[in-house]
């Protein structure tokens, strides 16, 4: 039987103990719901570094601004962080889909001025609701087409394109007064496993890492990125059997030493399997701190007992001499730069979002004028990182514009679908079709019978059907991407 968390458990650990209070100052907590529970407010008063917000904390901008004000008032201007990448990974717009295209679309457009404008607009929305640190952009180089965790979150598979757009994204957030955080060091793009569920391995020599994964990190560091997030991945030649988050070779020798990074090293969520499977979240927090991390993100909704255990584990690591006491002061001084109140004064201007989504469209063939279209949206499960955010064109298509059917692997029924589409346009919407053999088979069957069909790919355009009359690749499934696709198809686009 699971014991209910005690609201007093965090305060009982921190109390008046100076070492424990300093240890609390490197921990980033979280909680569920639109209002902070008492233990979070007490924890901030007792020295917690800050809070990372998730979708469950967000109702609307007004509520989020009030929440951020409450959090900052509880502590000494704590860090208010959020995982807001735009595109497929959004917390601000988790209920509606992001009005901003994600990195794959920005990389496909390949206009660094536009990327900076999009991130400036996104940053202005974050600043307006009191966020001080955005855990973005992802500067992973997505070299594995079947990567289950990065995909459209990456600008490209080209390290130099990723580097220049990563620098532009950092600059855009900073224009709006929000600190940027480049992730996931030393690079999650070559993995074929999700670090939420397993420990992925990137088994390449360090020279390959330097020429590929590290290029964008080096550029972002030189451009003044104040924060870098670790990856829970194993690089045998660098980290041995450990994930990079827990490896001093990765964090101190490579990131601090070779790349010269002097900012805040924040961990990816420590509740993820790749970090915590060995000994639990609290032990992972202590090990990450000893390895060189400054800010320990415990993950979604850890509860007061887990937060208290992490604080206690870090303090104990210092008492045991695994890390010098000065490391807490050093980390605290770095984190202080992220504690400032957010910027402001940059107006929210979403016009760049739709311009970028339009520029990202890849079109093959001529899109026909639609006649009472039947839109088939093939079900693609959400990733853990993105969560169940609305996607596709179906949420933005009015009944007057067409009929929408959701189709999943258990019931593809191509004959019925073709009959239902008789004498009308057929549009098939997919996300990362290359990952799902059933989608590939169904689409090929449909377009063989209906070569005038339109296929809209809202993930990465790795696979393309042979006979489709028109093929559109949006490079992302956000609301902005849907708007650009619908506009091209002659349908009134949703407001972004």
UniProtKB/TrEMBL annotation:
GO MF term set: hydrolase activity
Cell inner membrane listed as a keyword: no
Alphabetical list of SUPFAM superfamilies matching this protein: (Trans)glycosidases
Pfam families documented for this protein: Glyco_hydro_3 (PF00933)
Record keywords, A-Z: Glycosidase, Hydrolase
Annotated Glycoside hydrolase family 3 N-terminal domain residues: 47-337
Presence of keyword Hydrolase: yes
Signal sequence range: none
InterPro entries: GH, Glyco_hydro_3_AS, Glyco_hydro_3_N, Glyco_hydro_3_N_sf, NagZ_Beta-hexosaminidase
Domain of life of the native organism: Bacteria
Similarity comment: Belongs to the glycosyl hydrolase 3 family.
Protein name: Glycoside hydrolase family 3 protein
């Amino acid at each position: 039987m699971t014991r209910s968390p005690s609201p007093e458990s965090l305060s009982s650990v921190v109390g008046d103990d100076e070492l424990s209070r300093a240890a609390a100052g490197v921990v980033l907590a979280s909680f569920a719901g639109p209002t902070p529970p008492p233990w979070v407010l007490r924890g901030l008063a007792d020295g917690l570094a800050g809070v990372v917000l998730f979708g469950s904390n967000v109702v609307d901008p007004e509520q989020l601004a009030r929440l951020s004000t409450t959090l900052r008032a509880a502590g000494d201007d704590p860090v208010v962080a959020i995982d807001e990448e735009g595109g497929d990974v959004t917390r601000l717009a988790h209920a509606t889909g992001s009005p901003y295209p994600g990195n794959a679309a920005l990389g496909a457009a390949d206009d660094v001025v536009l990327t900076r404008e999009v991130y400036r607009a996104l940053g202005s929305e974050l600043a307006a609701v009191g966020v001080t640190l955005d855990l973005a952009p992802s500067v992973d180089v997505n070299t594995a087409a079947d990567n289950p965790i990065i995909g459209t979150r990456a600008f490209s598979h080209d390290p130099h394109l990723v580097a220049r757009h990563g620098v532009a994204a950092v600059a855009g957030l900073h224009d709006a007064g929000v600190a940027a955080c480049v992730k996931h060091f030393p690079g999650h793009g070559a993995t074929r496993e999700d670090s939420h569920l397993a420990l992925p391995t990137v088994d390449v020599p360090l020279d390959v890492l330097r020429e590929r994964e590290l290029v964008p990190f080096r550029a972002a560091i030189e451009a003044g990125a104040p924060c870098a997030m670790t990856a829970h991945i194993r690089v045998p030649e660098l980290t041995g059997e450990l994930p990079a988050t827990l490896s001093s070779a990765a964090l101190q020798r490579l990131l601090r030493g070779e790349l010269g990074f002097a900012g805040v090293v924040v961990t990816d969520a420590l509740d993820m399997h790749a970090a915590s499977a060995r000994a639990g979240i609290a032990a992972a927090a202590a090990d990450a701190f000893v390895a060189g991390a400054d800010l320990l993100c415990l993950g979604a909704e850890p509860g007061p007992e887990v937060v208290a255990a992490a604080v206690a584990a870090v303090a104990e690591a210092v008492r045991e001499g695994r890390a010098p006491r000065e490391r807490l002061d050093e980390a605290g001084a770095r984190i202080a730069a992220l504690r400032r109140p957010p910027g402001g004064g940059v107006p929210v201007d979403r016009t760049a979002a739709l311009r970028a989504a339009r520029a990202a469209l890849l079109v093959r063939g001529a899109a026909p004028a639609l006649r009472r279209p039947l839109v088939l949206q093939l079900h693609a499960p959400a990733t853990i990182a993105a969560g169940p955010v609305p996607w596709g064109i179906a949420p933005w298509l009015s009944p007057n514009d067409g009929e929408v059917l959701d189709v999943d692997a258990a019931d593809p029924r191509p004959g019925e679908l073709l009959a239902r589409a008789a004498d009308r346009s057929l549009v098939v919407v997919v996300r990362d079709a290359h990952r799902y053999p059933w989608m590939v088979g169904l689409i090929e069957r449909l377009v063989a019978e209906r070569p005038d069909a339109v296929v809209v790919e809202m993930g990465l355009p790795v696979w393309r059907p042979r006979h489709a009359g028109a093929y559109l690749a949006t490079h992302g499934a956000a609301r902005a991407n849907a708007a650009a696709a619908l506009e091209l198809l002659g349908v009134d686009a949703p407001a972004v």
